[in-house]
User: Fold this.
Amino acid sequence: MLTVFLVDDHEVVRRGVRGLLESEGDIEVVGEASREDEALALIPEKHPDVVLLDVRLPDGDGIEICREIRSASPEIACLMLTSYADDEAYLGAVIAGASGYVLKEIQGNDLVTSVRRAARGESLLDPKTVAQARARLGRDLDDEGLKPLSPQERRILDLIAEGRTNREIAGTMFLAEKTVKNYVSNLLMKMGMKHRTEAAVFAVRVAERQRRSFSGPE
Assistant:
């Protein structure tokens, strides 16, 4: 059986997706959550093949769940299922290691196919779409937001952009995890951002622009 865990704050959506998937006969939904804290507590215990994640949740977002799950259990595939076609969230999902980013308007058969492909370890992320999203976000990019950061905060931001969790950053930099958490909170405040996904995407975009400037025109 192919096992799936659902994370969405709308019960109607979870019921509909569960019914769709389990009608296949060889797919079992082994758990559900409506909040980030519930998901992070239950997913390791259930250890599904695929986690279907909504991007926006009452206490956080699915991208952070994806980052945590992929860090602890890279064999678990994460598939973002959202109502929002958002470039920043899309790139955030790429950085977090998601297998795909699909809209809720997707046809039922296509969603089942996407789940099966994710379970096989395939990526549903089109490189051309990723490039286009990066290009759109790159317009009018201003890296002034990085100037208030200390060297230590900038290093932590770079690690966030690599998809590292606080635990992984703590191990890399020989810091306590709580200390890293405080650094992250401070750098987000300095950058005027609410979520680390925003900061990660911003850092990636700045790095890419600097790389292009360094390499010069092709």
Summary: The radius of gyration is 18 Å. Residues 63 and 216 are 33 Å apart (CA to CA). The chain has a mean pLDDT of 85. Strands lie at 2-7, 27-33, 50-53, 56-57, 60-61, 77-82, 100-103.
